[in-house]
Input
Amino acid sequence: MLSEKLTITNPSGLHLRPAGVLSQTAMKFKCDITIEFEGKKVVAKSVLNVMSAGIKTGSEITLICNGEDEAQAMKAVSDAIKSGLGEN
Output
């Protein structure tokens, strides 16, 4: 299991478009990918779950990857978040 703390930098938080980018990136991997935010854990492969978490710009999240391709998943998803999920 790998985990990394990240800050959401895109201007409008995880609304539909960036949540979709995050989920599409996560779906490319076999491992379980979850996002922990304010005591809640959501499945990163579900756009609705990611949106329902209410993650705003400047929020700190913990990205957790667990499974056979966790290292590749962690790099891809964290790079997508760090690059602003298509909005920066």
